[in-house]
Design a protein that fits this description.
Elements lengths: L1 H34 L8 E10 L3 E10 L5 E11 L1 H18 L7 E5 L2 H8 L10 H11 L5 E5 L6 H12 L4
Parallel strand pairs: 1-4, 4-5
Antiparallel strand pairs: 1-2, 2-3
Helix pairs in contact: 2-4
Length: about 180
């Protein structure tokens, strides 16, 4: 009877190990996809980040938009009070508005952010949208519809340094 119990325990361990490996494979595939740019030579690229100090607290947003001919648009501004998700959404809205102001408008726009909550919420990859962020999501969706070719991708925080720096600058200059 003891060998059967050990066998069941070993099988359970083996199943947990398989599930963990499957999750790691998905994560590696997501990271590999996020490292791919897929933009053409005329694509505009944007990075966004939002910060809340504390969370919830003062909001700072940062965004960087780079054009195919060396154009550079930076956004660094205080954005009131709220949660880190509010800040991330505000930063995404700011980079979309900056791209909207470009003339001629970008033919292709690639946007990168490090908030899986916001990106998954906008892309609808979760069965239920993030609670309390519905108005932000509606604003972003309306802005996205104004572009012909736009993509939104997650990237790890350490690869979003310039947008983070701009959001931290905004927090530092925050005046209530």
């Amino acid at each position: 009877m003891v060998p059967q119990a050990m066998t069941a325990e070993a099988q359970a361990r083996n199943e947990r190990k398989k599930r963990k490996e499957a999750k790691m494979q998905v994560r590696r595939a997501q990271l590999a996809l996020s490292r791919q740019d897929h933009g053409g030579p005329q694509a505009w690229r944007g990075w966004f980040d939002g910060s809340a100090h504390p969370n919830p607290g003062k909001l700072g947003i940062g965004a960087l938009l780079l054009g195919p001919h060396g154009e550079r648009i930076e956004v660094s501004q205080a954005a009131g009070h709220g949660s880190s998700s509010d800040a991330e959404y505000a930063a995404l809205i700011a980079v979309l508005q900056a791209a909207q102001a470009v003339r001629p408008p970008p033919g292709q726009l690639l946007l990168f952010g490090d908030s899986q909550v916001v990106i998954n919420d906008v892309l609808g990859t979760t069965p239920v949208g993030a609670k309390g962020l519905e108005m932000h999501r509606a604003t972003v969706v309306a802005l996205l519809q104004q572009f012909n070719d736009v993509s939104l991708r997650w990237l790890p925080r350490h690869r979003n340094g310039e947008a983070d720096r701009l959001s931290q600058l905004a927090i530092a200059s925050f005046t209530p």
